[in-house]
Amino acid sequence: GSYKPQTNPNKQWCTRVHCYIEFSMAYNVSEGAAYAVLFTVLCLFALIAIASADFFGGCLGNFNNLFVLKQGDEEETVDEDGKKINNNRKTDFFLSARDSAPASAIALSYFASGMGAWVLYGPAEMGANKQIGWLGVIGYAFASSAPAFVVFAIGPIIKERCLDKSFNVTDFGRQRYGRVMQFTIAVFSIFYMFIYIVAEYTSISNIYGSFVTNPIYEFDPMSVSIAIGVITILYTSVGGLPASIITDKFQGLMVGALVILLLFAVSVHPENQLTVEQWGKASNWTTEGLMAGVTLFLAVLSAEMFNLGTWQRVWSAKSEADMKKGFIGGSILIFCLMMFFGIMAMVAYAQDPVAYDNWTKFSFLSFFDLLAPLAPAWHIITLILVTSLAASSVDTLQNALMSSFSSDLIRLQKHYGFNEEAPKWIARLLILILNIPAVWLGAKAYDVLSLFLVADLVCACAVLPVFFGLMTEDKGIIAAPTELGAFLGTVCGVFTVVVIGVVVEAEGGLFEYFWLENGAICALCGSKTMITFIITPISAGFFCLFFSKLDVLIRGEDSARKPMLAFAGDELPEVEKADELGDEGVVKDVNKDEEAAKEPQKETAVTGMEDAEA
């Protein structure tokens, strides 16, 4: 909502999407110290990323295995001249880290990449509000960890059904439906991940600005966004997805250690001690909290299904068992971290409930109220923590954006004989283009929760039409989704939000209700918001099946099951699985090499191509 108290000694006010904060509290972090922390931490991760691409060779000795992922049990390969080929720099491995990450790496990577700097704000808004209390805190923690269980269940199925060397769920959309749904999934995924990056740049900029800006120093928060954007782009451009997974591993360990230290420091400080009576004011179980928990579960689950960074881990896991163990482990870590920040917010509220109730203090800033009385060294540790959190999320999202059309780029490169590095450079260019506006928007101080809320609701419009694609056979009168049915179902999901906005008489334009300004006590609270997140995906799923049935009845089974749109190159066979044809896969094209076409194996190759297409 819009909070603008008449009297506010901290000079804070927030509107729907903008939040400007000028703290009266001083954190005593100098500008030089802040920049030292920022660039030291980022440079450390850059070195780790370079090591992950095996640029240090044998210099690391026995420690090399800590920094370098290897595909399965792959042996070192050499070229015709006997020179060693660095498999970690091949295009497919650069973009997918295929079949290389053990369970521990998947767990730490999923944990670190999913927990950005925003976690200092999100759970705090639930915890430092007596009308939400425990159910909001637990609901947010469960909602953040729940997507791992869904991927645990359907990830292996989706991977198995992708015939080629796929990278994420956009490839599933192309192979299950066709180009229209592939682009639809890509648009929703890119939109969500772009919002996520903006939220990370906003969060980290606000935190650095809050810790440094005081009567002595004037700090430009945008410089932090630029530094994180540039350095993460550089090291992901060098190491690709393997670099992201390896840096996530170290970032996850750092985050865990720093959170334990902060837990100790905050808990033992005299100003943060509570009586049982004080704690009772924050420890509440309310209906508002239950509604917020339900809303968060549906919202986060819908959005995370379009996080390509999560889906990349399905293909990068060394085995199905490693993938499942990794996601469960990462889910537990996420739940614990979310609970930590939520409970810390409850502690802050218990100290000064009147200030939070009359908006003299803001709930989403409650964790910082606990940090204020600590020594400057703990503020430095907090900056190290948030820098690690932001870098882990941003580099994962950058690699995820690169993977949106990676499969198509590699297939076309192999068919037309482009330079093998071409897909890498196209992907890098895409990341650069998207990061420029993201950094600029991050400096605009948009409210993080409002940004996520819009992205969550947009994704809720498409989540069931996309994943109903797992149904490939008719179930009685229910037809398996067609591409046209899935697309129209998604459109109906968007239309459903507009209709709900009209029914509840939302102010503003036709699509204004996507901001979900329902006058509740928080952006994610209230029955209207909860009902919206329940009705929207159900409506989209229903109309997906409804229009699919009509599609089959009107156009016939054969026509309805064909892709709606075909592009040049779609007739190419798939790049076959790595475990069948080796590291790079093979595109069988009997017309590419006329001499090969005349060989006796021509008929066998054509048969194999037809089988792949079938």
Give a summary of the structure in a few sentences.
With 614 residues, this protein is mainly alpha-helical.
Percent of residues in helices comes to: 55-70%
Strand order of the largest sheet: 1-2
Task: Give a short account of the largest sheet.
Answer: 2 strands, antiparallel
Report the β-strand fraction as a percent range.
under 5%
Order of helices and strands: EEHHEEHHHHHHHHHHHHHHHHHHHHHHHH
Backbone structural class: mainly alpha
DSSP E strands, number: 4
Mean pLDDT: 81
Give the termini distance in whole angstroms: 53 Å
DSSP helix count? 26
What multimeric state do the chains show? single chain
Overall form: globular
As residue ranges, the low-confidence spans are 1-24, 572-614
What is the alpha-carbon Rg in Å?
25 Å
Describe the overall structure.
The strands form two sheets. Strands 1-2 form a two-stranded antiparallel sheet. It has a two-stranded antiparallel sheet with strand order 3-4. It contains 26 helices and four strands. The chain has 614 residues and is mostly helical. The protein has helices at 31-52, 64-67, 91-96, 103-114, 122-127, 133-161, 169-176, 179-212, 222-268, 276-282, 287-304, 308-316, 320-351, 353-357, 366-371, 376-402, 406-416, 422-442, 448-460, 463-467, 483-503, 527-555, 557-560, 578-581, 594-598, 602-613; strands at 12-14, 19-21, 77-78, 84-85. Residues 1-24 and 572-614 have low confidence and may be disordered.
